[in-house]
Amino acid sequence: xxxxxxxxxxxxxxxxxxxxxxxxxxxxxxxxxxxxxxxxxxxxxxxxxxxxxxxxxxxxxxxxxxxxxxxxxxxxxxxxxxxxxxxxxxxxxxxxxxxxxxxxxxxxxxxxxxxxxxxxxxxxxxxxxxxxxxxxxxxxxxxxxxxxxxxxxx
Length: 154
Ligand code: HEC
Hints:
By secondary structure, the protein is mainly α.
């Protein structure tokens, strides 16, 4: 057999073996949905759902390439880490904790850290316009202040 054929076969074998290492793609049951609990205006809800829910909720829309190693490792680990930091499907009931989450959302939007560029490169529908970004930030600002005011009156 020619050398290049052996190399090609070896590469295919490695690729096939990698497919046995695909991590589990999970969507556990939603506990408390952010949109239901915090009731943002419809436009804010739509933006957050489109730009954040794939990595920060239990309603991830897994693309076909999330089944293909080694890309699957990157996508599953991003989603695991994203859910750990901020979970729109496990929104806190407690006012001060919810207000803190809103502060963090406001912060990452202000610094344009989220949604990550590597993600919006592929997911055009997750890109936020400046107006959408500002709309979310204005709402998180006001909603966090309202939650804090309500909790000190108790
Ligand atoms: C491609 C997946 C992905 C998308 C989409 C995404 N995030 Fe994230 N997000 C992550 C990951 C991974 C982390 C944890 C690592 C980090 O902080 O960079 C994170 C961290 C965060 C944090 C916590 C920062 C901290 O250090 O506590 C906040 C808040 C956040 N994201 C908000 C958002 C918001 C709001 C959106 C939508 C506008 C969004 N993210 C979209 C993957 C994503």
